[in-house]
Design a protein that fits this description.
With about 400 residues, the chain is mainly α. It contains 17 helices and no strands. The longest helix is centred in the first third of the chain and has 30 residues. It starts with a helix and ends in a 15-residue tail after the last helix.
Length: about 400
C-alpha cells in the first residue's frame, strides 16, 4: 500500500510541477460511442419485451461507467492544469442533458393529456415535478419497483438514471476538489473506500431491499466511480492507441462476454445491482481500458453503424420509454413483437431528429451564452414543475372524462 501511495504521489508531483503530457484519454474514441450503442440497444429491447434481452437493463450500468470515465477525465485534465471551474462544468452538463430532455417532456404533455386516465395523469404530473429537479429516482423509489408490472406504463420512468447521474455530479466535483486540497496522495484511497462502501450497500440492498439499491445513488455510486478510476489510471499511464497486445485482445473479448452474459442470462429475479452488477461494470471497464482501433472488439465497436447509434444513444434512451409506455397505455393487451419492433425503429428515428436538431445545436457554445442557457433552463424547469403541481392538485383533471347528463 505504501508503494502505491508513493507512486501516485510521484505522479502528482510530476504532473503539478512539470506540466501535463498529452492525454490520449481525452481524444475522441469511436469505440466509446460503440460501447454506448452496446448499452442502449439492450435497454431498449429489454423494455420492448424481447425475451433474449431479459437482462438488458444492465445497459444502464454500462452508461454509468462510461459517464464516470468521460466526466472525470475532463475534470482531472482541467484540475491538473489549474483551469477547472465548477460553473463551466455545470454549464457543459446543462448543454448535454437538458435541451433533449425538455423537448421529450414537452412532446409528452399533449400525448399524456389525450391518452392517460386521471390516475395515470396524476402520477405523470408528479413525474413532471420530479424530472427537472433531478429527484425522479426518489419518486420511483417511493412509488414502485423497477420490475413491477406497472413500471412499463410510466412514460418518464427511465429518467431515474439521469437523476442518479446529476446527483453524483452535484457532489463529486466539489468533494474531489476538497480531497485534492487536503492531500492528493489520499485521494485514491478515499475514492476506493467510497466505492467499496457503495458496492456493499448495493449488495445488501439487492438482497434485502431491491428498490433502495436499484434507484438510489449510494448503491450506484461505485459504478460511476469505476469509470472515474479508469480516468485516474489513464492520467497516470496513458493508453496505447497504435497497437494491440494479446492482453488487449483477451481483455476486450472478456469484457464483451461479461456484458453479453449479463444481457442474456440476467432477468427480473436476479439480485441487482449488488455483486451481480460487477459483470457489466467490469465488462465495460475492460473495454474502456484495453480497447482501441487495433483490437478486434475496438474495431467492431468503431463501425459506422455502432458509432451512429452511440452518438444518438442519449436521445434514443430518452425517447424509447415514453413511446413504449404510451403505446401500452392505449392497448388492451400487451403489444405484439412486430409492433414493439416498429416502435423501436420509431424511437431511433426520433432519437436521430433529437440529436440532429436539439442536441447538436445546443452543445455548441456559441449557440446560447451561459446566462441564456441557465435562464432558459430555469424557466423551462419552473413551467414543468408548475404544470405538474396543477395536474396533481386537480387529480389528473378527472373532469376530462365526465359524462354529460344530457347524454342519459
Amino acid at each position: 500500500m505504501q508503494r502505491a501511495f508513493t507512486a501516485f504521489h510521484h505522479f502528482l508531483y510530476r504532473a503539478h510541477f512539470m506540466g501535463i503530457p498529452h492525454n490520449p484519454a481525452l481524444d475522441y474514441r469511436p469505440e466509446i460511442d460503440g460501447l454506448r450503442a452496446l448499452a442502449v440497444i439492450p435497454v431498449i429491447l429489454y423494455h420492448a419485451g424481447l425475451p433474449l434481452f431479459s437482462g438488458g437493463f444492465v445497459g444502464v450500468d454500462i452508461f454509468f461507467v462510461i459517464s464516470g470515465y468521460l466526466i472525470t477525465s475532463i475534470i482531472l485534465a482541467q484540475m491538473l492544469n489549474g483551469r477547472f471551474s465548477l460553473i463551466d462544468f455545470y454549464e457543459r452538463r446543462a448543454r448535454r442533458i437538458l435541451p433533449a430532455l425538455f423537448v421529450m417532456m414537452l412532446v409528452c404533455l399533449p400525448v399524456a393529456w389525450l391518452t392517460l386516465d386521471p390516475s395515470d395523469l396524476k402520477y405523470f404530473a408528479k413525474s413532471l415535478v420530479a424530472v427537472p429537479t433531478f429527484s425522479s429516482n426518489l419518486l420511483f423509489w417511493l412509488e414502485s419497483g423497477y420490475f413491477d408490472a406497472t413500471a412499463e406504463l410510466k412514460p418518464l420512468l427511465h429518467t431515474w438514471t439521469l437523476a442518479v447521474e446529476e446527483q453524483y455530479y452535484l457532489f463529486f466535483p466539489p468533494l474531489l476538489i476538497l480531497a485534492w486540497s487536503m492531500g492528493r496522495k489520499w485521494l485514491i484511497v478515499l475514492l476506493i473506500a467510497a466505492a467499496l462502501a457503495s458496492l456493499a450497500l448495493a449488495e445488501l440492498g439487492a438482497r434485502h431491499n431491491a428498490s433502495n439499491a436499484f434507484y438510489l445513488l449510494p448503491a450506484r455510486a461505485w459504478e460511476l466511480l469505476t469509470g472515474s478510476f479508469i480516468a485516474f489510471y489513464f492520467v497516470w499511464r496513458p493508453r496505447s492507441v497504435d497497437s494491440a497486445s494479446h492482453l488487449d485482445q483477451a481483455a476486450t473479448l472478456l469484457g464483451i462476454l461479461l456484458i453479453g452474459y449479463a444481457v442474456v442470462c440476467f432477468d427480473s429475479s436476479t439480485a441487482f445491482p449488488g455483486l451481480n452488477a460487477l459483470l457489466p461494470v467490469l465488462g465495460a471497464a475492460l473495454i474502456i481500458v484495453f480497447a482501441n482501433g487495433q483490437t478486434w472488439v475496438g474495431n467492431a465497436l468503431s463501425s459506422r453503424v455502432t458509432v451512429l447509434i452511440g452518438m444518438i444513444s442519449y436521445s434514443a434512451y430518452l425517447w424509447h420509454q415514453p413511446v413504449f409506455a404510451f403505446a401500452r397505455q392505449r392497448s388492451l393487451i400487451e403489444p405484439g413483437l412486430p409492433l414493439m419492433l416498429a416502435l423501436t425503429l420509431l424511437s431511433l428515428l426520433l432519437a436521430w431528429l433529437s440529436w440532429r436538431f436539439v442536441e447538436q445545436p445546443f452543445r455548441k457554445a456559441g449557440a446560447f451564452n451561459r446566462r441564456q442557457l441557465f435562464a432558459s433552463a430555469g424557466v423551462a424547469s419552473t413551467l414543468f414543475v408548475v404544470l405538474g403541481l396543477v395536474g396533481y392538485l386537480n387529480n389528473g383533471f378527472s373532469q376530462r372524462f365526465a359524462v354529460d347528463p344530457a347524454m342519459h
